[in-house]
Amino acid sequence: MAELSFIIKRNGEKQLFDSDRIFTAINKAFISETINDSEKVLSLTKEVVELTDMIQNERSNYVSVEEVQDLVEQTLMNHGLHKIARSYIIYRDRQKYVREEETLIKVKENQLTIRLENDETIIYNPESIESKLIDLTDGLEKVSISELVENITKQVYDNIPIEEVNQIILNSTREKIEQHYQYSSLASRLTLEQLYNDVLNTSLKKDNFIQNYQAKFKDYINEGIKLELLNDELADFDLEKMSTHIKPNRDLLFHYLGIQILVDRYFIQNRDFKTIELPQWFWLRVSMGLALKEKNKEEKAIEFYNVLSKMDLVSSTPTLFNSGTRFSQMSSCYLNISEDSLEGIFKLFSDN
Predict the structure, then answer these.
(1) d(CA 195, CA 213)
(2) How high is the pLDDT of residue 2?
(3) Could you tell me which residue, 4 or 214, shows the higher pLDDT?
(4) Residues contacting residue 66 through CB under 8 Å, at least 6 positions apart
(5) Is residue 189 part of a domain?
(6) Domain check: are 236 and 301 in the same one?
(7) DSSP classification of residue 115
(8) CA–CA separation, 229 and 322 (whole Å)
(9) 100, 128, 153 - which closes a domain
(10) In a 10 Å sphere around its CB, with 0-12 CB exposed, 13-18 middle and 19+ buried, how is residue 153 labelled?
């Protein structure tokens, strides 16, 4: 094990990695099956530690408790020790149940807190989670809010960061996507809510949401130009006119995978890697880039926008990446004409 390696506990605390704990856990699983083989336990422990090292080498010398326990299960199974692995799995499930029950008791007694971004703390209240989900589930009758809240509550711990609470809410929703596609819509809305909070400092249900979404489009274009990310020619558009055609409610057309791919790969970020683009701004930026050389560019950009934002058609990746930016290479492929011979084909490539 590398020097000063750490393990992340379930409550987010970081402790020095201790391989003796792995030995003890595996040994208890052996003993539960009335097997006493310290040499074998030590060999398995070393194997788990080596696998853990591989994970830590990809990071900054840390690994989570759950990851280590998964590696123990995997190692036991790989060695054909199925009964011992079963005992270990049962033990994990029993401990998980105990933790969940302890958490529910603390929640009822208002003993769990959430740490906000400014380091202030608030009491964890399942009703606030329920209220948030109710706000985001209009038209999603197949979503069980009570099941989600119950699952979320079991995973929180005292002094949990608000960012982790939001991630637990999203993960709990994602896990149910296979049950019904409406959970994908909810996961999309949760992702959008985070975007709205980060970019607009507002939320979908606020009265001024649509007004803010439209009004700040001009600021976004100007910021993108100032950062030398967007084409200067976008400022030549009538941005006030363009912003009035933005339809924020079309964001709700996204399912989870679609919006997450846009956030991860396509939306423009500033120099601090903070996303500064929203879905409808993205569609309109692409449309304006496509219409730059049109005589009536505002009208054409609006036409393009209505096609893209309703997802009647979606442009290829190079167009979505680059349209409206300072590097508007928008072709997915190129067509070259060459002689019908190997010499002609290779000469064409060498010339280019």
Answers:
(1) 11
(2) 45
(3) 214
(4) 10
(5) no
(6) yes
(7) E
(8) 10
(9) 100
(10) buried
Is the same domain home to 36 and 86?
A: yes
- CB 69, CB 94: distance < 8 Å: no
Q: Tens digits of per-residue pLDDT, 207-237? A: 899 999 999 999 999 999 999 999 999 999 9
Print the domain residue range for 130. Answer: 113-180
Write out pLDDT tens, residues 252-263.
Answer: 999 999 999 999
Q: Are 305 and 212 part of one and the same domain?
A: yes
State pTM to two decimals.
0.74
Structure tokens at 297: 């560019």
Q: Which ranges of 109-161 would DSSP assign to H, the alpha helix?
A: 126-135, 145-155
7 pLDDT band, cuts 50/70/90, is confident
Q: Is 67 helix (H, G, I), strand (E, B) or coil?
A: helix
Identify whether 338 is part of a domain: no
- Where residue 125 falls among pLDDT bands split at 50, 70, 90? very high
Is position 188 within any domain?
A: no
Q: Hey, what amino acid is at 70? A: D
Counting the structural domains of the chain, the total is 3
Does residue 333 lie within any of the structural domains?
Answer: no
Assess contact for 229 and 266: CB atoms under 8 A.
no
Residues 95 and 15 in one domain: yes
